[in-house]
Design a protein that fits this description.
two-stranded antiparallel sheet; alpha+beta; 2 helices; about 140 residues; about 25% strand; six-stranded mixed β-sheet
């Protein structure tokens, strides 16, 4: 089921100028869920962006591994390879205030995960991702 918070987070990413959106009519029909977006970078190259959100102040806090759905990274790698994309793919980790459709976006970090999508590791440890490419707290 689509979660409108993903649209809200994606809008915040575009408003920061990190990526530009590609019209939904140009998206492939096989994107697995509304956590996935097709974007263009500053050079106009298309890339895949996967959105992960967590609730600020929740007991579990920031996820230790992303994404939460264990088959997402292999699918991300497959779609990236099938499309022959030359940049990315990217993962955006967004901290939000609540689970509503339009939460306050507390922070967003985006990593370029090219070369980190090993089939043997269906999840990435946040601690291993080093500095993000984009960071709303840093910029």
């Amino acid at each position: 089921m689509p979660h409108k918070a993903n649209d809200h987070i994606f809008e915040a990413i575009v408003n920061r100028g990190w990526f530009q959106t590609v019209p939904e009519d140009d998206w492939p029909s096989d994107l697995p869920s509304d956590n996935w977006r097709i974007v263009t970078d500053a050079q106009g190259r298309q890339a895949l962006l996967y959105l992960v959100r967590f609730i600020s102040g929740s007991k579990s806090g920031e996820p230790r591994r992303i994404p939460n759905e264990p088959t997402a990274l292999p699918r991300l790698a497959d779609l990236h390879r099938e499309r022959g994309l030359s940049v990315g793919p990217f993962i955006a980790l967004a901290e939000v205030s609540d689970a509503t459709a339009s939460p306050d976006v507390v922070s967003i970090r985006v990593w370029n995960v090219a070369g980190r999508l090993a089939p043997s590791s269906p999840r990435l440890r946040v601690a291993d991702l080093s500095r993000p490419k984009f960071d709303s707290e840093r910029q």
